[in-house]
Write a structure and sequence with these properties.
By secondary structure, the chain is an alpha+beta fold. The chain is 13% helix and 27% strand. The protein is globular, with a radius of gyration of 16 Å. It binds a DNA duplex through residues 52, 54, 61-63, 66, 69-71, 85-91, 93, 95, 108, 110, 136-139, 142, 179-183.
Length: 203
DNA sequence: CTAAAGATGTCCT
DNA sequence: GGACATCTTTAGA
């Protein structure tokens, strides 16, 4: 019997050990997990349906390729933190850090399927079209109110932003591809998405 | 100090 | 399919 004390267990953040592994593996296994954003009493949730792995010295497409800088230092830190960066003068992108501390790695969350807090997401995105709320890395950060202030945020805490496991993970038809929007490293098969899911970004 | 690119999205034709 | 918005970060002089 599941009493009130256990009612929240399925909502517990994924623990650090999940993130402290090979970035490519974490990218694949993040599919199907739930991204949770707490904004006061408002809760936003989405199922992760598209990710990309970015590593370090072996990955010319990665911000961490040439070593630590002010921007990418979170990628070199403890796994299980948010790496949020600003790009194109107007967009934020959300990553989760991976690999053991000192080793660079992060997974870009490219798309989620909205499941809770749709009204708030619509307001933030300025559209009523659910399919356009979070089918892209900068769209989902807008829908989920993720900005630079969350850079470095610990995703194993139950506050503000974290990732949870569904109580029963249904089997996913995962498709592997090459990463989008990069110049070098474009041959690496480090993009993962749920086949035929309508919330995957289109390019 | 200066310049150029950028893990994108939107609007236009 | 292409233009363009918009500004931080980084590399190089």
């Amino acid at each position: 019997m599941q009493g009130p004390h256990h009612a929240n267990n399925s909502k517990a953040p994924i623990t650090r050990g999940f993130y402290e592994r090979n970035t490519v593996k974490v990218a694949e296994e993040l599919l199907g997990k739930t991204l949770v954003r707490r904004l006061g009493s408002t809760v936003l949730e989405g199922i992760i349906v598209e990710t990309e792995a970015y590593r370090g010295a072996d990955d010319p497409a990665s911000h961490a390729y040439r070593g630590p800088t002010r921007r990418n230092e979170v990628m070199f830190g403890e796994p299980g933190h948010a790496y949020v960066y600003f790009t194109y003068g107007m967009h934020y992108c959300l990553n989760v850090t991976t690999e053991t501390a000192g080793q660079a790695g992060a997974v870009l969350i490219r798309a989620v399927q909205p499941v809770k807090g749709l009204a708030e997401m619509k307001r933030r995105r300025g559209t009523e079209h659910v399919k356009d709320l979070s089918n892209g890395p900068a769209k989902l950060t807008q829908a989920f109110a993720v900005t630079k202030t969350l850079n470095g945020h610990d995703l194993t805490s139950r506050k503000k932003l974290y990732v949870t496991k569904p109580s029963h993970q249904i089997p996913l038809n995962i498709t592997i591809g090459t990463r989008i929007g990069i110049r070098s490293g474009s041959e690496k098969p480090w993009r993962f998405f749920v086949k035929d899911n309508p919330y995957v970004s289109k390019r």
